[in-house]
Design goal:
CATH class of the largest domain: Mainly Alpha
Strand order of the largest sheet: 1-2
CATH topology of the largest domain: Non-ribosomal Peptide Synthetase Peptidyl Carrier Protein, Chain A
Number of domains: 2
Shape: rod-shaped
Strand content: under 5%
Largest sheet: 2 strands, antiparallel
Distance between the termini: 104 Å
Radius of gyration: 38 Å
Number of helices: 8
Number of strands: 2
Order of helices and strands: HEHHEHHHHH
Length: 150
Amino acid sequence: MKVNVQRAMAARVLKVGVNRVWIDPERDEEVAMAITRNDIRGLINDGAIKKRYKRGVSRARARAVHQKKKQQKRRGEGSRKGKKTAKISRKQAWILRIRPIRKELKRLRARRSITPTVYRKLYLLASGGTFRNVSHLTRYITEKKLFRRR
């Protein structure tokens, strides 16, 4: 049975949208016979017509993601937002860059590849942020011919 008109009328009476009106499939004929708002109100009181609950947004996915994040998952490089310094602090980046350079300088001095004077100069240059990485430092030493002559 077509109960579109009754559904619309019930929606107005219940103050909800048409899709939130539930009509009992067993009492379709009875609903189809209703032509006035009073008839609709009577059917609502009888329980032939009801108001459906509002559908919310499910939090199930959000809960699952939150659970994973508690387990230290989903926190990789690709999930991060913000600028470079938000992902790794300036200080941490500096530490990661300077330690290998200083280690290499100490190694060169220990092997007597460079003199202590050259070591000190290079150390101070490194502290000033001259070198990007160890290979840059090595290239600089080679170009400036700072290796000890054998």
